[in-house]
Amino acid sequence: MKKKFLSVLLATAMLGTLLAGCGDDSNKTNGGNDNSTTPATTESTPKPADTEPSADNNGGGDTSAEPVTLKWAIWDQETTAYWQDIKEAYEASHEGVTIEMVDLGSTDYMTVLATELSGDGTDFDVVTIKDVPGYATLVQKNAIIALDDYIKADGVDLSKYAGATDQVLVDGKLYELPFRNDFWVLFYNKDLFDAANVPYPTNDMTFEEYDALARQLTDTTFGSQTYGAHYHTWRSAVQLFGVLDGEHTILDGEYSFFKPYYEMVLGQEADGVCRKYADLKTEGLHYSAAFSGGDVAMLNMGSWFIATMITNLQTGEYDSSLCGNWGIVKYPHAEGVEAGSTLGTITGLAVTSATDTPDAAWEFVKWVSGEEGAAVMASSGNFPAIMTDEVKDLITGLDGFPTDDASREALSVSNLYLEVPYAPNVSEINSVLDSYHGSIMAGEMSIDEGIEAMNTEVGKILAQ
């Protein structure tokens, strides 16, 4: 009965997730996914960002307090089931608290939100943070408060976020807590492996092993091609293999660490292991169409594609004879890097500087971003920022999720490296890296020339 109920939730929520941007290139600044809150007691006057939480309200969720309404900024309310799920679950467990959701739409959400918070008359208490560049803007505008005093007072364990919170610190302070996390895994077509009599990929593969496996699965016979791997045109599908060592980020300003991965992917292109970038750009072939077509053995992609696979196979949009027998494993990694290290994009919650009830707003942020909120997210097939055993049970128990142990284990993340960590100028850096990624992959520049151009142009930005 539990699985049937979750499957019904999934059928509605997964479509909403897809429509909300997970499969839509138009909302990607860096090649990843859209990413994004919690309540309890009230306080009569606003609390400055860096003062201690009041002694009588350190996260206890005092339900005897006066009724409070928290105004919460979100997007795409009608097509994203978890907003309502969170509201209902929180109100049910916190007597006297009402969550008022305000839908600002997904188009230019962070720009609209920044405008809303710039006026003296704003009455938002909690806001959802969709991306890191938008987060940077709100911090610079002093529109949201630092949460460090609350985190310390309530003993929030930031290690549960697998390192994600460390990457959005601003001068050592944290202004958001993540509640949703989409991370990259490796999808594979079991039928293609079975037909080639090749063992399935594992949860602990180096890039050398991954490259060799992709080549084993490749068949270049005209008319019956099988591609061992597929890379979408986002730069994150190639460049960001290089940040999994935890030593590099896209903010470095020196990008020679990208070179081995460009060499691997372009070498695979030359040998017919994967489709050519130029052809993908010309044809506009989406990664979902490529994998569901049944001729791609392995695809590196975000966890949001799990929702798409399950839903589209259930509805018949995808042909189950071509891609119905699928699984996932953890991302491949460089030699010496811990298995389970992966890329991620987070969606977070923040308390506004304008709120009259900062303690209550913090309680909401803490709850949604914690284990209780994680369970609510997982019940509708979405990936929360905290991946507990209960959460994994909920997701892997969904009708249509692969039943093998390796796919379940793939949900365990050891190190989460954000595609876009915090920096005041991250949008400009993104633009430069996007541009020269395209030049390298299209053959307009050599790898060395493209990396040299990245170094030069990003160096100018960092010098400002």
Report on the structure:
- By secondary structure, the chain is an alpha/beta fold.
- The protein has 18 helices and 8 strands.
- Strands 1, 2, 3, 4, 5, 6, 7 and 8 form an 8-stranded mixed sheet that branches.
- Helix 2 links the parallel strand 1 and strand 2.
- The radius of gyration is 22 Å and the shape is globular.
- The N and C termini lie far apart (59 Å).
- The model is unreliable at 1-64 (pLDDT under 50).
Note the overall shape. globular
Largest sheet: 8 strands, mixed
Low-confidence stretches: 1-64
What integer value in Å does the Rg equal? 22 Å
* N-to-C CA distance: 59 Å
Approximate helicity band: 40-55%
Strand content: 5-15%
Order of helices and strands: HEHEHEHHEHHHHHEHHEEHHHHEHH
Helix count equals: 18
Structural class: alpha/beta
Mean pLDDT: 87
- Please provide the count of β strands: 8
Q: Which features characterize this protein?
A:
alpha/beta; 464 residues; eight-stranded mixed beta sheet; disordered N terminus
Q: Topology, please?
A:
Blueprint: H1 2-22, E1 68-74, H2 81-93, E2 97-103, H3 109-118, E3 126-129, H4 132-140, H5 148-154, E4 177-189, H6 190-196, H7 207-217, H8 259-270, H9 277-283, H10 287-292, E5 298-302, H11 304-315, H12 320-323, E6 326-329, E7 341-351, H13 358-369, H14 371-379, H15 389-396, H16 405-409, E8 415-418, H17 426-441, H18 447-463
Parallel strand pairs: 1-2, 1-3, 7-8
Antiparallel strand pairs: 3-7, 4-5, 4-6, 4-7
